[in-house]
Write a structure and sequence with these properties.
Blueprint: E1 5-9, H1 17-22, H2 29-40, E2 45-49, H3 57-66, E3 70-74, H4 80-92, E4 96-100, H5 102-106, H6 108-112, E5 125-127, H7 132-143, E6 158-161, E7 167-169, H8 192-203, E8 207-210, E9 213-214, E10 233-234, H9 237-250, E11 255-258, H10 267-279, E12 286-290, H11 297-306, E13 308-313, H12 320-325, H13 332-345, E14 348-350
Helix pairs in contact: 2-7, 9-10, 10-11
Length: 351
Amino acid sequence: MKPDIVLVHPLFISKDPVEEKIMTPYFPLGLMYLASVLRNNGYTVDFFDCTFKNDYDEFKEYMKINRPPVVGISSLITIRRNALILADIAHQNGAKVMLGGPDPTAIPERYLHYKGTDGDYPVDYVVFDEGELITADLVDHIFQNGNFISNRRDITGLRYRGNDASIVSTGNRELIQDLDGLPFPARDLVDIDAYRDAWMKKHGYWSLSIINTRGCPYGCSWCQKAVFGKKYRSRSPENSAREMKLIKDTYAPDQIRVVDDITGVRRNWVLDWRDAILQNDAVIPFECLTRVNLVDKEVIQALKQAGCRMIYFGAESGSQKVLDAMDKGIKVEQIYSASQLCKDAGIETYF
């Protein structure tokens, strides 16, 4: 069946020596969430994953055969060039093209003012900040489906070109508060075997990812908070545990990586999460990221009981002067303390 929309992940491992060396590929949860939301709205969604592709020609062939009317691409600064080349290919094959992710959110003009091989602008829209609800409204607008918003200016959260090629902003969409209301990511669209094989060949185990919270309330001076912002929001512990159980039963990975910016901003959430994981028989070894000022013995023990095997701490520096200059909000002594707590609990640390 011809897809209504294809979502594209523009990371080619074969074109990135660093990614090729470390070989820890995780498919993009953001696109998988978009796919689930669009499916719930009745659209046929396909996923073109460049991770294990060799070159752009494979996408050219895909577009010629499938001719999807809408193409959505997620981009980071490190893969901006790939994303723009793929956008150009999609445009040349008649698709409406939307870009989202941290880099387009930070600098939409780099995408909207990019000119392709035919001298035309291939990118039609930038979806700003969190993409699920904005993309759903935009796709309804493009297809004129359901109670669609007829004027794109009324779709909050977009950036696009006006008649004089200037950037039009429709403002910022309110951040999603009810994360439990989002469907689980559409992992079935991904070639799981390709990811599993790459992990096993390089590391002897394989890993999947999950996200529990969005946003970071801290103010480190160097951090770019595009997409999720500073307002911290979390799924319920029960909702997360149900997804972990689904992953465990369906895919049986050796571990998962919790890709939240910070795990444990609300310590009681961690304790309740531990309880929900145990109650749902959802324990899977996992890695997570947090801050040294957020852990104490009880939190570390709860994470251990939930399956935590490694914590990535944003230590940044052993110099208090440097930490203060970064507005990091931690003390060097807290780095030592967090490390010792993890060592005592049998949790590995990565700084």
